[in-house]
Amino acid sequence: MNAPPTTSMLRALPAEHRERLMSRAREVSFPQGARLFEEGGRADRFWIIRTGTVDLDMHVPGRRPAVVATLGRDELLGWSWLFAPHAWHMGAATTSPVRAYEFDAATVRAMCQDDPALGLGVAQWVGGIVVHRLGSARTRLLDLYAPYGSGGFR
């Protein structure tokens, strides 16, 4: 698989765009074991993790949710907010206490619509993360449930 995209907003976006987004952030914290969102729920916010870890999981019929990734410092938590119908594609739970910057999705989408350069930068940043995470999730699910593991892409 290819190397992961730049997941840190600090490295993915120009300073001007980072500053505009961060002006809309609010600091939040969550205890270990907090369920942040469920697959299929309304994606109305997203986070950039400052400290701690969060597991992303997917519903598997007849089994416990399968953990497909663990996110940590400087990583984007949540991408479903950017793409209609704005419903979570995975679930998320903290595996340690977490501090994060939280963003209101509607506000950021409006900022992106009003400033096409910002919108393009955010879309490329988030899109790269989506592609990487879906590939990782596929590999992880094959490792968990396929008879011979992932075996790589064919």
TrEMBL record:
Entries under InterPro entries matching the protein: cNMP-bd_dom (IPR000595), cNMP-bd_dom_sf (IPR018490), Env_Response_Regulators (IPR050397), RmlC-like_jellyroll (IPR014710)
Start and end residues of each Cyclic nucleotide-binding domain: 9-78
PANTHER family in UniProt: CRP FAMILY TRANSCRIPTIONAL REGULATORY PROTEIN, HTH-TYPE TRANSCRIPTIONAL REGULATOR ARCR
Name recorded for this polypeptide: Cyclic nucleotide-binding domain-containing protein
Organism: Streptomyces caeni
The organism's taxonomic lineage, starting at the top: Bacteria, Bacillati, Actinomycetota, Actinomycetes, Kitasatosporales
